[in-house]
User: Fold Corrinoid adenosyltransferase from Insulibacter thermoxylanivorax.
Amino acid sequence: MKIYTRGGDTGQTSLIGARTAKDDVRVEAYGAVDELNSFVGQAISVLDDRCADLKEHLIEIQHELFDCGADLSLAKQGTRPYRVHAEMTKRLEELIDRYDAECPEIRRFILPGGTQGSALLHVCRTVCRRAERRIVTLARQQSINEEIRRYINRLSDFFFVAARVVNVRAGIGDVEYIRSEEVFRAKGDSNS
Assistant:
């Protein structure tokens, strides 16, 4: 099989079931998800053995991001069963709760950084938010698998907690945004 086809030389690309412009809103959405997947791979490559469990979860997320891309690349919805489903989002919520339990409570915004792995997971978080914005734009114009929106929204929360866990396991504390007031309430505060 040849890697190049010359089919996109005129600025067109293939969706599942149609051809469209390479800058089509649907292509932008699944392209942002693909970009996110690459950053996840980069984060995995720098994590050490203290994060072996996290690496396994990140590899599973890479597969799920391919599932998101496959669903987003459907030119016509309903031509095949969706790959992204509610159980995937529920699993992310369980992982968020599990990893968050390892982290100290936060009161202020934190700056991305610490270890290289943590910094890269913050990059994943922000690229995930961009992918989410592209998906929201697409959903306003065309039909999509709505579970993708929920999954991607939860995924950015997962990356935030994962970034914090990497630092915790390395013995590095959060760097608080010092110009911030306390914006998060501690668990158990009466106004929570």
Remarks:
- Helices lie at 25-46, 52-72, 86-100, 116-141, 146-169.
- DSSP finds five helices and four strands in the chain.
- The chain has a mean pLDDT of 88.
